[in-house]
Design goal:
Layout: H1 25-57, E1 65-71, E2 77-83, H2 90-100, H3 102-111, H4 122-130, H5 137-142, E3 147-149, H6 159-162, H7 166-169, E4 175-177, H8 190-202, H9 206-222
Parallel strand pairs: 3-4
Antiparallel strand pairs: 1-2
Amino acid sequence: MSDRRIAVVREDLIPLLIGPGLVPLHARWSKRALDIVGALVLLVLAAPLMLLLAALIRLDGGPALFAHRRIGAEGRPFPCLKFRTMRVDAEAMLRRHLAANPEARAEWEARFKLKHDPRITRLGRFLRESSLDELPQLLNVVTGQMSLVGPRPIIRDEIVRYGEHFHLYALCRPGLTGLWQISGRSDVGYGERVEFDRRYVSEWSLLNDLRIILYTPLCLVARSGAY
């Protein structure tokens, strides 16, 4: 598959959230307007906190931001921004850890996440549990690579887990928040995660987006499934 476009979007199967489709043009414009206005307002409000966090992260000599390659709308890869929560030698450390720990390897292969990840710094653990590490993704929303609400942005290796449902994922921009984020996050099995994304696309409405946005702060306070 091409790095530029991994999936061929099947426009006949589901209302599109991007491009021409069964969702009215005014509804698509409303979603994008909500993204731009909401992300800009949040960026202004969060700017002092983001500058402070960036300075603290930089204390270990590494960069403050980390751009992770994720799969976006129409299967196109994009740099998903986050505050760096891992050590600067994280990739080499992961390889060593998985090679020495069969249980950790099995957990990684099942979820692409580790509940007890030795790569994460002390500040990084706090950022992940509070979801503050995802604040830079507001920039991804402003540039149109992400939406405030949508499927969780996945990596290339996760495409196979979506099987026949990957074309649904590729129909819309991944979200800063979504059904997965308000429904248990990493405590949810992968099959349920895929089902959340399928439901979001097939049942999309601007009202559902607003409900998810309003419910997200409650889930962030609870920190359920965040690691």
